Amino acid sequence: xxxxxxxxxxxxxxxxxxxxxxxxxxxxxxxxxxxxxxxxxxxxxxxxxxxxxxxxxxxxxxxxxxxxxxxxxxxxxxxxxxxxxxxxxxxxxxxxxxxxxxxxxxxxxxxxxxxxxxxxxxxxxxxxxxxxxxxxxxxxxxxxxxxxxxxxxxxxxxxxxxxxxxxxxxxxxxxxxxxx
Length: 180
Fold this sequence. Notes:
The chain is mainly α and 180 residues long. It is 69% helix and 6% strand. The chain is built from five helices and three strands. The radius of gyration is 28 Å and the shape is rod-shaped. The model has no long low-confidence stretch (mean pLDDT 86).
């Protein structure tokens, strides 16, 4: 929020310094809606789903092995000598801890992989937004996601979503019809 206040102060000061005839142009867009249109983003999401599935299969395999050994332990615990009983308990404890550790590490690896995949997509989108901003002579381009800009003056702001989509070579969304 502080960043937007500084941008607006800068824009207003630019207006005052440039005189009443200076036109301040502010662009706005929904970053997420453009990001979700990008084929690189769609592919990254597909890759992440596949990676999650692989980790889930491995975790399930480990849990199945633990359940099988635990069941065997329960069935034979009455007949085991104490040293074998203790050994099997320790083995079960190790398997359980390894399963928990694997899930935690997998979650961290998935988060890192997702961040790396999205960073390159975001960089491309950032470059397109910057190019549209420079080309259009905008003082700034604001992201309207998460209701961060509840009001933008229609006289001083322009939706640059379609310009960014065109620059990225993406299809502009179809205009909404009253039949929906």
